[in-house]
Amino acid sequence: xxxxxxxxxxxxxxxxxxxxxxxxxxxxxxxxxxxxxxxxxxxxxxxxxxxxxxxxxxxxxxxxxxxxxxxxxxxxxxxxxxxxxxxxxxxxxxxxxxxxxxxxxxxxxxxxxxxxxxxxxxxxxxxxxxxxxxxxxxxxxxxxxxxxxxxxxxxxxxxxxxxxxxxxxxxxxxxxxxxxxxxxxxxxxxxxxxxxxxxxxxxxxxxxxxxxxxxxxxxxxxxxxxxxxxxxxxxxxxxxxxxxxxxxxxxxxxxxxxxxxxxxxxxxxxxxxxxxxxxxxxxxxxxxxxxxxxxxxxxxxxxxxxxxxxxxxxxxxxxxxxxxxxxxxxxxxxxxxxxxxxxxxxxxxxxxxxxxxxxxxxxxxxxxxxxxx
Length: 373
Prior knowledge:
The protein is mainly alpha-helical. The protein has helices at 16-45, 50-71, 76-94, 120-137, 146-165, 170-186, 191-211, 213-223, 234-246, 271-303, 308-332, 351-369, and strands at 101-104, 107-113, 116-118.
């Protein structure tokens, strides 16, 4: 059972292992975004370096955000959890309003602030982790009770989930639910209650997944992509061709054939396929090992942090990043249906990259207070 022990003074430096893993994944991302996007950038924008320049700019902004959050005592975020949640819900409502939210490819997920678009759903992932860590840490010992412990966070989770599904962004909504359930389990929620919720929720999620025609086609393509190789199965077939052609050591950095407008979203959702093609099994395995080490170190930081809020916050941040990586790689390898979740720290992105690095900065601050050395 988790206890509310007082946190010690920050007498240590941030965890060097998490820091180095983050820089390694970020560096791989910059290189692979350039390699994967050079052809499409040349074709669309007549600028081979278009996506590279954007990725470098967002990475720089993200590193700045990580540096700032790394210096802020993580207990400050407990006081800001409720305001952040309220602002996030308002943003999720605003993105659904025509004229405020920007629709791209049928999804209304972005809000433009001048020249900079951002996704409120990316902020929602961080906000829900902060809220859960704050709310649950104050109720350690009561989480095994449904009405006094579990009910309130489930209501908040349902509101955020529903708003994101309306965008629609089923992948992010599912990620938020999965991370929240893991945090509830870590806080001492009854396994019987969680399994009961899963038994009730999974059929509903499956029904939602196939209710929309495009999601139904994705699910059918996952079951048999060769049923429609030029339509709904095209993404996964091209992804598997990229992974399979890489062999042990790959075809060589920058020498991908699939990036020549065969594989869609090659620098975002399916960048891991280009990694497998150009760097082979060895390069893909290196990425997997880095995420595994991130998970191992992040959870060890959680265990070594004395107070409940720090423990739960570390669990939430670590799980959020690693879960997205697992889902993305599962999609690219054909083990999961297409969800639209990018590969954290590696895929081309703006708000997702900045918020992820900011969250890692919070994790690094928590590590300064932990006893892990």
